[in-house]
Amino acid sequence: MHRIDLNCDMGEGFGAYSMGDDTAVLDYVTSANIACGFHAGDPATMHKTVEAALAKGVAIGAHPGLPDLQGFGRRAMAISHAEAYDIVVYQVGALAGFARALGGKLSHVKPHGALYNSAARDYRLAEAIAQAVYDSGPELVLYGLAGSEMIRAAEKVGLRAAAEVFADRTYQDDGSLTPRSQPYAMIDDVEAAVLQVKRMVTEGRVQSVRGNDVAVRADTLCIHGDQPGALAFVKRIRAELEQTRVEVKAHGDARDQGAD
């Protein structure tokens, strides 16, 4: 039987601003990547989102980003590898603190936005992030783009790595995501997204924007909680996966620690 983790980026409001229907989406995902206050989120939102995830049995992950609230962490920023290490340790520690205070524990870490995309290409940056995660907790799972430098760096430092694929993003021939600044970067049609997901999970392949088949390893599937219609999107994808007899389960499930 094929298996996949469904993860969602959430807790990305702050102050008086909210984003996405996190509470409803938690009924359909198995892992929550919770913003840690740099690109989005604040202490109250972190507390609320961790509490909701624990109540619904969803694995808790830190979602560290660049210090760029106005740009939502999606603008490239020149930071040193030492700075990358420090901001990841800082944010992971903050989210882990809320998890521990509420009777849970941190399961995984998934970098956000420009930090994620830069680390997918830049091995030294990926290594700094992976080392930060390892030093924060060697039992943690690092989520990174399938086939990217982040997966290689995680495995080199001794972390479990979850190769991530996307339901709502298109791919290039090299397995990278189409930049959001380019046409056809996003998939808004649910039917097209479902077909892409089923192929990635059951065949290990995805069609690029040029029409070529690209091999992908699919350990975890990302659903963007801030996209319009995210709830309907995740409900449909989960139903289709279960109908196709794909087991939907958190990659960082404590029962699987030590398993490949």
Characterize the largest beta sheet: strand count, sense, and whether it forms a barrel.
7 strands, parallel, barrel
N to C succession of SSEs: EHEHEHEHHEHEHEEEHE
Measured by DSSP, the beta-strand proportion falls in 15-25%
Distance between the termini: 15 Å
| Whole-number mean pLDDT | 92
Helical segment tally?
A: 8
Q: Give unreliable regions as ranges.
A: 254-260
Q: Portion of residues in helices?
A: 25-40%
Radius of gyration: 17 Å
Number of strands: 10
Please give the order of strands in the largest beta sheet. 1-2-3-4-5-6-9
| Basic shape | globular
Structural class: alpha/beta
What does this structure look like?
The chain has 260 residues and is an alpha/beta fold. The protein has eight helices and ten strands. The protein has helices spanning 22-25, 43-55, 81-101, 113-121, 123-136, 149-157, 190-203, 230-243, and strands at residues 3-10, 31-35, 59-63, 106-109, 141-145, 160-166, 205-207, 213-215, 220-224, 247-248. The strands form two sheets. A seven-stranded parallel β-barrel has the order 1-2-3-4-5-6-9, surrounded by six helices. A hairpin with a 5-residue loop joins strand 7 and strand 8. The chain is globular. It starts with a strand and ends in a 12-residue tail after the last strand. The model is unreliable at 254-260 (pLDDT under 50).
What topology emerges from the helices and strands here?
Layout: E1 3-10, H1 22-25, E2 31-35, H2 43-55, E3 59-63, H3 81-101, E4 106-109, H4 113-121, H5 123-136, E5 141-145, H6 149-157, E6 160-166, H7 190-203, E7 205-207, E8 213-215, E9 220-224, H8 230-243, E10 247-248
Parallel strand pairs: 1-2, 1-9, 1-10, 2-3, 3-4, 4-5, 5-6, 6-9
Antiparallel strand pairs: 7-8
Helix pairs in contact: 3-5, 4-5, 5-6, 7-8
